[in-house]
């Protein structure tokens, strides 16, 4: 195996005038150097507009050349022998500036740096905006109108501990095998095949993924670097990013800015919503259109409103690209939109809990989802979860009204806030599964699902063990390899419990039915009258007459069951996060004191895993993006300045707040266990809740994230001329 390294651009925007790799090729141990002149015409992005290497670089860290060598050290040394002549171009970083006609253009095919909004992944009518009803009429009916500009543009990094890494090996001229720590290996196989123009047979083997937080759905650029080098050398190639590359050249959260307007009646009925949503996707779009569509769907779950005119715009800028991060569009939109909504609540003197109880989606309510289709909720009413969360937090004691602190202790003020989020993607996309029953009383699940930190593989084994009434240790699951498993979209959007679980449950039930058909002649009973426990089949009510699986299957037979889940967006999940903060008005320091997460998930499949998911809401581009998680972009050089774990601020264990959870188990009409997933949305309500809490504590509104000490002191008028 060889080792690959990437030469990266020092400039945010430039044309490559000349590139000379001859000296690098002469270095002992170097086996290949690739530039834009040599790489295959594979393209990624949505739409497909990004080459593996290009003659133009569009951010500091953009790939310029690839090297494969016998060791990482040799490959790294060879980068220094590649001579590049650049023609520097003007760069643009602000999302609204980039959308102007006279802004520097990143791609000639996208005037004003604006990308199309449609997402082919979600079908021919994907949601591109939220436009319905009569907005002008709605504003006329309103008692209160609130307008504002808020931004969630700190572009945090989800930063799973494991570095991005991939290995590629060509098994033939048109057959490549990829080993990668991606959470969706089958989906990667499909998308990589499209990027390679459907000319290559791609096998993607998923390894256990050391956390993802969304960012490991697929590392296509990294994979194609390895594949291109492996192709030209005829040997396997491993490409592993450094931590600095992980920070500066992998994937960040979207930048989100909204100029919005809300009309509301005094009782909290929302009559109209309009706004321009600017989405900064960085130098290209991986799947930003999909995030836009999901965000536009999720905002409807939070607010019942008949009149909408929300217009999104995806804009490219000269920084590292934004990619898939948990919260997937909805967190970015709501963190900027909810504060405008709360301005209307403040004018109406409404308690935010009462507002969300009135407005959050309920059974029978409808909404347009990401596919552009109108869906009707058939889930549960989350009012009870909100009320129990508020009671656990002691909201009624702590809430003193808008822009009023809960308590004052010398220079310190405490304040409280609340946020809400939900996602109908718990039932997204297709899952297939097989379950095989063997004579030795074991069951094997065939599902292309990677372990990515949530315990989902073991949860599926629990479901099958329950269906077949086998000890858990008798159930296993195959490695996540598309060569042996049926189609699986992957564990994204909290879909593992409902979508993947439904396919696996169906497969187990189908296998059990086939087993009972074999037992019919011996037990003289219909399949529906039979049951199995611990590898013995018997007639219900006549447990004394049993036949072991081995007798039914012999040594030459297995029972193979099949299950398939089709998309169902009718059961949105729910998360409400309550926070209490302490602000020192002399130093601007903010401490997170208390967090309560409240939800309802139906039957809990794995209590410990669920508890960990809820507690995992703080870091990795979660709640702490409200306080300090931020990629600091220097707009003079185009560089991200804090590409290490010291300068990129991160909560340590000694700074953890009091954390409580409230989890109800109201049965859902999902599958035999009545459960849905919730882990992916755990962090999404947190940032807007913290913004509300800090604003209440200091008595004035803050308009963007993160809420660093200089912003607080500036809002309080304690910095001369706004100096930081």
Query: What's the N-to-C terminus distance?
Result: 50 Å
Structural class estimated from helices and strands = alpha+beta
| Share of helical residues | 25-40%
Given the structure, what is the number of helices? 18
Instruction: Tell me the strand order in the biggest sheet.
Output: 3-7-1-15-12-13-14
Largest sheet: 7 strands, mixed
Shape: globular
Rg over CA atoms = 27 Å
> How many beta-strand segments?
32
Mean pLDDT rating: 96
Strand content: 25-35%
Poorly predicted ranges (pLDDT <50, ≥5 residues)? none
Task: Name its key features.
724 residues; 7-stranded mixed sheet; 6-stranded mixed sheet; globular
Characterization of this structure:
The chain has 724 residues and is α+β, with helices and mostly antiparallel strands. It is built from 18 helices and 32 strands. The strands form 8 sheets. A 7-stranded mixed beta sheet has the order 3-7-1-15-12-13-14, with helices on both faces. Strands 9, 10, 11, 16, 17 and 18 form a 6-stranded mixed beta sheet that branches. The longest helix has 28 residues, at 496-523. The radius of gyration is 27 Å and the shape is globular. The two termini are 50 Å apart.
């Amino acid at each position: 195996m060889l080792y690959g390294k990437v030469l990266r651009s020092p400039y945010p925007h430039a044309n490559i005038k000349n590139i000379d790799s001859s000296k690098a090729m002469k270095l002992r141990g170097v086996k290949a150097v690739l530039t834009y002149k040599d790489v295959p015409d594979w393209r990624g992005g949505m739409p497909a507009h990004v080459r593996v290497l290009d003659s133009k670089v569009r951010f500091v860290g953009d790939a310029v050349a690839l090297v494969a060598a016998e060791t990482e050290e040799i490959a790294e040394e060879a980068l220094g022998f590649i001579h590049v002549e650049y023609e520097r171009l003007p760069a643009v970083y602000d999302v609204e500036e980039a959308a102007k006609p006279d802004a520097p253009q990143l791609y000639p095919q996208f005037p004003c740096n604006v990308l199309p909004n449609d997402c082919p992944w979600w079908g021919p009518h994907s949601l591109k905006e939220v436009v319905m009803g009569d907005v002008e009429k709605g504003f006329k009916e309103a008692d209160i109108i609130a307008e504002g500009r808020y931004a969630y543009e700190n572009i945090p990094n989800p930063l799973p501990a494991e570095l991005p890494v991939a290995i590629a090996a060509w098994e033939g001229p048109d057959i490549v095998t990829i080993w990668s720590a991606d959470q969706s290996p089958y989906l990667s196989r499909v998308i990589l095949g499209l990027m390679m123009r459907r000319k290559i047979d791609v096998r993607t083997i998923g390894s256990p993924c050391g956390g993802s937080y969304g960012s490991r759905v697929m590392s296509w650029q990294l994979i194609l670097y390895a594949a291109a080098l492996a192709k030209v050398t005829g040997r396997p190639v491993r490409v592993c990013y450094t931590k600095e590359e992980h920070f500066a050249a992998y994937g960040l959260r979207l930048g989100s800015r909204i100029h919005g307007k809300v009309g509301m009646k005094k009782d909290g009925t929302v009559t109209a919503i309009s706004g321009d949503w600017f989405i900064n996707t960085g130098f290209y779009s991986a799947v930003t259109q999909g995030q836009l569509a999901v965000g536009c769907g999720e905002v409807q779950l939070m607010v019942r409103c008949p009149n909408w005119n929300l217009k999104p715009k995806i804009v490219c800028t000269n920084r590292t690209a934004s990619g898939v991060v948990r919260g997937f569009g909805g967190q970015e939109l709501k963190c900027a939109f909810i504060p405008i909504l709360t301005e209307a609540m403040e004018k109406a003197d409404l308690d935010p809990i009462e507002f969300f109880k009135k407005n959050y989606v309920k059974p029978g309510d409808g909404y347009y989802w990401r596919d552009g289709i109108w869906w009707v909720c058939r889930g549960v009413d989350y009012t009870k979860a909100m009320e129990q969360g508020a009671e656990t937090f002691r909201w009624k004691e702590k809430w003193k009204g808008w822009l009023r602190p809960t308590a004052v202790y010398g220079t310190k003020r405490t304040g409280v806030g609340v946020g809400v989020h939900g996602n109908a993607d718990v039932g997204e996309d297709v899952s297939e599964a097989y379950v095989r029953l063997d004579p030795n009383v074991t069951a094997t699940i065939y599902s292309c699902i990677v372990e990515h930190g949530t315990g989902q593989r073991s949860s599926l084994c629990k479901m099958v063990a329950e269906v077949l009434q086998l000890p858990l240790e008798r159930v296993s699951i195959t490695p996540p390899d598309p060569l042996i498993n049926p189609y699986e979209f992957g564990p994204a959007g909290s879909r593992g419990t409902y979508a993947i679980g439904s396919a696996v449950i169906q497969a187990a039930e189908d296998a059990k039915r086939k087993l009972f058909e074999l037992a019919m002649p011996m037990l003289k009973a219909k399949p529906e009258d039979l049951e199995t426990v611990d590898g013995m089949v018997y007639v219900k009510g006549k447990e004394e007459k049993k036949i072991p699986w081995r007798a039914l299957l012999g040594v030459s037979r297995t029972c193979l069951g099949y299950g398939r889940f089709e998309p169902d967006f009718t059961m949105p999940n729910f998360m409400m996060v309550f926070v209490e903060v302490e602000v020192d008005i002399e130093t601007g320091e903010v401490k997170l004191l208390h967090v309560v997460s409240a939800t309802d998930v139906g039957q809990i499949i794995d209590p410990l895993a669920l508890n960990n998911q809820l507690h995992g809401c703080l870091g990795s581009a979660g709640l702490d993006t409200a306080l300090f998680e931020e990629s600091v972009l220097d707009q003079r050089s185009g560089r991200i300045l804090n590409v290490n774990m010291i300068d990129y601020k991160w909560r340590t264990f000694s700074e953890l707040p009091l954390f409580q959870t409230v989890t109800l188990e109201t049965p859902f009409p999902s599958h035999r266990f009545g459960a849905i997933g919730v882990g992916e949305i755990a962090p999404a309500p947190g940032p807007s809740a913290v913004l509300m809490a800090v604003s209440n504590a200091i008595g004035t509104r803050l308009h963007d994230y993160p809420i660093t000490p200089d912003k607080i002191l500036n809002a309080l008028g304690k910095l001369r001329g706004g100096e930081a």
